[in-house]
Write a structure and sequence with these properties.
single chain; Alpha-Beta Plaits; alpha+beta; 5 helices; six-stranded mixed barrel; about 270 residues
């Protein structure tokens, strides 16, 4: 049977806070990406710009942080191997409220360290996170579980979020790549542009489904047209699946609102970045 991580780690405490925040989000929104008494340090102990990237090294897997677990009604199965992992999505961050608390891996959360939380990557792992809008990139050590709300793909420490330039906005469009020990720790500008059709201008969509038959996709598109003022389109590419997408969206907040409305009507869409 799937088990939750040990209840004392920071990820479990963050999960409890997330349940409260899910109710508060629509009413009060976020303040620079944090809520209530979380956020950046009042008097930073170090200059975030001077903190070096994490250095990938070989480490044994955490004995407690790699078991299947449940969060918000879903069961997650951590990867045993993450070679070649690459994902685009929305990054968030967490700060002083959890500083000094225990993480899912058993390490202590330090908001001044280059670390992050991920739902399924092995603990520990090392990843390169690149802000797709400003080109900044960092290397962080994944040592915690989360985030579990709003289609976020990674939760960064305060200092990592600062270096990527997303502390004030609270979120950022990013690409996450696993970095093996001894592997390259930076990405060339040519690779970045090749991976994004519009270079520095990534596009954010809300995807409602992918279908083998166009008729099924068109049926969903017609059902969705009455719910949104933004255009709902059916697209296809080399894999020959017909995708039903809303957008492009003007911001992460607009995509969050669209997803919240969709969930109210029984849909469970995803944020997609191209």
């Amino acid at each position: 049977m799937a088990r939750m991580p040990v209840t004392t780690p920071v990820s479990a405490q963050r999960l409890l806070l997330s349940l409260v925040l899910a109710v508060l989000l629509a009413a009060c929104g976020s303040r620079g990406g944090y809520y209530q008494d979380d956020g950046p340090p009042r008097r930073p102990q170090v200059d975030p710009d001077t903190v070096p990237d994490a250095v990938p090294r070989r480490e044994p897997h955490s004995r407690t942080g790699n078991r299947p677990y449940q969060a918000l009604g879903k069961t997650y199965y951590p990867m045993s191997v993450a070679d070649g992992y690459r994902e685009r999505g929305v990054a968030s961050w967490y700060g002083r409220k959890f500083h000094g608390k225990r993480t899912s891996s058993g390490e202590t959360y330090n908001m001044y360290a280059m670390t992050a939380a991920h739902r399924t990557l092995p603990l520990p792992s090392y990843v390169r996170v690149q802000n797709l809008r400003n080109g900044r990139e960092v290397i962080v050590k994944v040592n915690d579980r989360g985030p579990f709300l709003h289609n976020r793909v990674i939760d960064l420490s305060y200092v990592a979020a600062h270096k990527l330039g997303i502390v004030a906005t609270g979120t950022g469009l990013v690409e996450v790549n696993v970095v093996p020990p001894g592997g390259p720790t930076s990405i060339s500008r040519a690779t970045t542009v090749a991976a994004s059709p519009r270079g520095d201008d990534p596009l954010l969509y809300v995807q409602f489904g992918a279908f083998a038959l166009r008729d099924n996709a068109e049926s969903m598109r017609r059902r969705l047209r009455g719910l949104y003022t933004q255009p709902v389109r059916v697209t296809t590419d080399r894999d020959r699946l017909y995708r039903v997408r809303l957008g492009p969206m003007s911001s992460v907040e607009a995509a969050d609102d669209a997803i919240g409305r969709a969930q109210h009507y029984g849909y469970d869409p995803l944020m997609i970045i191209e």
